[in-house]
Specification:
249 residues, 6 strands, globular, disordered N terminus
């Protein structure tokens, strides 16, 4: 097996979105598991929270965090399999409903905050709101291009690890004899569990974005990063989904 970046085309917006040192096996898994790819994109972190979530703690077969993830994935799959929503002319409504379900579980604002890392603390409230909105639009635009590839993949729930207000739910996406591990990292806030990162086959979505954003900030400026984000979400025929949630800074 050869190892490489696994990224083709545009390093952080193109076909290689979310890839880093996955190797041939990892690339094959992602290509053949659209739901795993969707999970990677949806979960779109200052990684102090990750350290707590990943620290040794008892693993159990399920708990509140697992139930939160399971309820969201179940509803996403229900919408993907809905025959009425597959009819001609229903594509936009289908995507709207999928976006709504995802936004109720995935904290795009928390993902944006952690993806930007230490630079987040230097931003004004208005800048944070703008960046979080652009980051959400990027993720939504990316996954809507791939979500139609869902073809009956099954999700297995393997266990839950928790420590105070952090949890990690381990799952496995099974399709055509290909098994892709997908771990959801969650933070409890506002009385519920919110996904703030997803690790697909050992690759963290947030860690990838943080590294990519950091390289741009080192070689250019925050204004340039925002401009690149804005151009990417507006190119083509963007849907312009700007729904936002408040960030617990």
């Amino acid at each position: 097996m050869t190892m490489g970046s696994g990224c083709r085309g545009d390093a952080w917006f193109g076909h290689g979105f979310g890839c880093r040192m996955t190797g041939d096996k990892g690339r094959a898994r992602m290509a053949r598991s659209p739901l795993g790819w969707l999970a990677q994109v949806l979960l779109v972190l200052a990684m102090a929270g990750v350290a707590a979530a990943a620290s040794p703690a008892p693993v159990n077969s399920g708990g509140p965090a697992t139930e939160a993830v399971k309820s969201t994935i179940t509803e996403l799959i229900r919408l993907l399999e809905d025959k009425e929503l597959k009819k001609p002319g229903m594509a936009e409504e289908r995507r709207r409903l999928l976006d709504k379900v995802a936004a109720a579980r995935f904290s795009y604002a928390e993902m944006a905050k952690r993806s930007l890392g230490a630079h987040w603390r230097e931003l004004t409230d208005a800048e944070r709101e703008e960046f979080a909105a652009l980051f959400q639009r990027l993720l939504v635009k990316t996954y809507t291009r791939t979500i139609e590839g869902y073809a009956g993949q099954q999700v297995q729930y393997l266990g839950e690890r928790s420590a105070e207000d952090f949890a990690e739910v381990r799952t496995k996406i099974v399709s055509d004899k290909v098994e892709t591990p997908v771990d959801f990292r969650l933070l409890r806030m506002r009385g519920d569990w919110w996904v703030y990162d997803v690790v697909v086959d050992g690759v963290s979505v947030v860690s990838n974005y943080r590294g990519q954003f950091a390289r741009i900030l080192r070689s250019s400026s925050y204004a340039d990063l925002v401009e690149q984000l804005r151009k990417k979400v507006e190119e083509g025929n963007p849907r312009g989904n700007t729904a936002r949630e408040k960030t617990d800074a």
